[in-house]
Write a structure and sequence with these properties.
Radius of gyration: 20 Å
Strand content: 15-25%
Number of strands: 11
Strand order of the largest sheet: 2-3-10-5-8-11
Structural class: alpha+beta
Length: 317
Amino acid sequence: MFTDIEAFGNALVDSGLPPVLSGRHDSGEFRAGVVARALGPLRLIALNTPAGECFRDARCAREADERFWQVELMTRGHARVEQGRRAAELGPADVVLIDPARPVRFASTASTHVTLLVPRRELRLRTGDAERLAGVRFPGDHGPWALVASLAREMARSLRGFGAGAADRSAAAVIELVSVALEAQLGDPRPGPDEALRERIVGYIEARLSDRELAPAGIAAAHHISLRRLHRLFEDQPLTVAALIRRRRLERCRADLMRRDRTVTAVAARWGFADPAHFSRLFKATFGYNAATLTAGERTGPADASECASPAGAPRR
């Protein structure tokens, strides 16, 4: 529990949450808490904040915030979240989807809440759908959102002891559940057979990225289709099956190197790259810089916008 405003703000930035600016907060004794945990590509942040207001505008913009969606669950208290032309009035168990790359304003009573930071690529929301869903209140006391709310609460309390493989598979399940809830909110018709099969295959790939044997032939066999059929499913997609596997592995490697004290060779091996030199060339060609620049003692991430560190009492996101 933090009683120092500045220390709490620094902890929020360290947790991975997008920064905000202070609006208003209670002048009484300050008490707030933050606990951040990782589950594969997911990031979970449990927050306990006093009453207050905060907002995020262009001054707080970071490139990193364009890489994920923010799913916010209230567990105690009430909050108002404004994004775009929408205002979501949240009570306990309610959920809201937030685009961290766009301006947003928060106001809350003393409250507790859980944030899920979900990589955009994995949630696979279309641009138009995101516009329809961001800033909308989703009731978490029934339907698919009740499952999301319950799971988020339990994970925030007891996310311990997951091995790498179990964490990735569990994260894939959570992401799928959030996707189902969002689709239900949109009221979209069921996807066609090809789209549904492709989505299952993408989920299968995500859950097995650390398996060095993961390859198109094995994926086709696991789904009882021919290799030719598999490739045809991805003909109109941005990446082929092999390129998708390679890209997602590289993104997992980059994420590990940015948050862990591990060598480039160890991280590359964990995600299926047996040849360190080949991995280094792929990484540089994909991201434009060397993997070694992200290892301990050499990290060169974007400069912190210290003035955007979370303020006291802000219902921090």
